[in-house]
Structure formats: structure tokens, C-alpha cells
Request: fold
Amino acid sequence: MEEYISGTNLTSLISNLTSEARLLARVYIIHAGIEDTDELLTAVVRLQQLENFVWIINERVLVSNSSALFDGILGVKLHSSFTEENLLIDATQLIMNTFSKFIHHPPLFWSEKISVLNCSSMQSWSYGRDVFQAFLNSSVEGGITGNISFNEGGDRIESLYEIINIQHGQLTVVGTYRSNTSICTTSSMCREVIDRTELKLDENQIIWPNGLNRKPDGVHTRRNVSVVTIVEKPFIFARPGNNCDPLSEVYCTHKNLNNSNGEEYEQYCCYGYCIALLQELSKNLSFVFTLHLVADGKYGSFEKDRIDQQKRWDGMIGELINYQADMIIAPLTMSPERADDIEFTKPYKYHGITVLVRKHHFH
Reply:
């Protein structure tokens, strides 16, 4: 999340948010004031951050009639039935329902001569808390704007929104979202009620930025993720050669530390459960990778260096810490010492299959 203040250079803000160095996702939610709308959206177009991006804006910007609103933007706004006239009609009914509860209230409540209440006054109305609580406990069933009821904070529980897509410069409804709709789960008497949200969205109607009909992935595709692994049957197998089966094998290299045959790298085809898992991750998370076998053939220990006696990680963990790899995929045991410097996924089974990434330290 990035906050900005009045006077911020919005072009620089958008450029910074979408820079390659920090770009992890391509779905952006903008909450801005009307006064910043033109400059903010113009910056998005000028920086050509449209294709493969999803831009979602708040209601004030959506209904601002700004000429900078570009095709493909998404947003939500209250349903068209929530007009001022309809809200006043429902509010009148709510007031009637509320004050009908005070019919048998002490006579002083009705005889108190207060024509106008000053909401800015520090002096509270003696019946204010009672009236407020009565409003919270009141409801309107089947109002023009839907059912009306409130939570403890006085916010309306059930709301209906339209999902809007900017198409050819116009606000086009592509779906609806209803919050906290109550459903009865018994057939005879409605004794058990469950609250739920209801989303209706026709993705085929949506036009995405740059006029595309294909939904963006919503994630940044890294050009290449360097993955290190180790031969450990039955999880990872490796056979010499480079004629790998594209369906079940992945080309992987091994750095020859001895270099006795004059070849710096040896060529292998890697396969097994871990490789199949890596291929599925690549497909589902939209990244490409290069795979190599750990040079020293070790998992990773925190040992003293023979030369300067400083303790360092070796093996796959050493490569990860020293930025020689972005990720480890191997049957690596989780330990407190390792967890200090690397982040483990939840183990597949009995600490068996684990994907590791370097731990980011924030200062």
C-alpha cells in the first residue's frame, strides 16, 4: 500500500508503484480524491501501464465524469436504486418504525420542548442514547433500496453495489455485489439464518485495458527464476545428457568444481516428483525458471570457512543466501538454524517436499 499527500507528484508515484524492481502484482486499487483523478489516471496512460494490468478505482473517482477515465477500468458504486429520493423514502419508514417504539415511553420524552438539536453541542441530549439504540434495533423489510438494518456501529449491514467497467468512455454494469444477504436454512420456520455475500459477474462482458478481452493474469511474470536442487531419489533424479523429454524432464546443469575435463558445466536431464511440482508451480504462478544442481552436492550447513574461519552456509542454502539461486526445491529438513535465514513453505509430508525462498530482512 502506498499513501500520498496533497502536492505529491502523481506521475512519479505511479512510476514507482509499477517499476520492475518492486512489481509483484499487477492489480491496483486506487482510492483518490476527485481533485487528483485527472492527473493520476493520465499518468497511468502516459506511462503505458495498461496491458496486463488491472486498475480498480473508488466510487468518487468512478462517477467524477473525468475525461481521464480510460477503457478497461473497474470500480464499484451503489446500485442505481440508491437515489436520494429512494433513500429518503426508506429513511422515513425507518424513522416511523423507530419512534413507534417510544409510544409507551415516559410522557417527559414527548413533552420536552426541544425544536432543534445542535449536533455540534458538547451537551448531550438526555434521550439521545435511547433513540440511537432504538435506531440500531429498528429495521425496514423490503425497502426500495433493500432490507435495512444496522450493526453495533450504526453502519448499514446489507448493501447492493454495481460492478462498473468503463467501455467506450461510458459506465457499463457488468455485475452486482450484495453484502450480508441473509438466507434461511430451515424449511419450516426460519430459526437459523446465515449471512453471506453474493457476487454476480459476467467476465465475458468486461473490456480490459488496451481493449483486450482476455483477463490479465494479475501477477508480474519474472523473466527467469533460478532454482537449485539436489539429486535425492525418489524426489529428484538426474541423467547425463541434454536430450530431455519436454513432458517429464527439465534440462539442468551442474557446475564442475574440479574442472578436470575442461568443461565448466555438465549437462543433465532432471526428473521426478520435485520437478513435476516445479513445473506445476511455474504454470500456475506464471513464471519461467532455469534449474541447476547444487555445485558442492550438499544440502546446506553453517560451517567455519577453512581460510578465514568465518561461519558461512554451504550447499543449496549457501547458494540461496549468496544470491546464486532464487529458490530451492528439494527434500530439505526444516531446522531452527535454517529458518533464521530462509523461509520454508509448509512441508508436503513429514518435512519431505519443501520449496524455499530467501528470507527478506526489513530494517
Observations:
- Residues 184-193, 348-353 have pLDDT under 50 and may be disordered.
- The chain has three domains: 10-81+159-211, 84-144, 225-358.
- The two ends are 18 Å apart (CA to CA).
- The first strand starts at residue 27 and ends at 30.
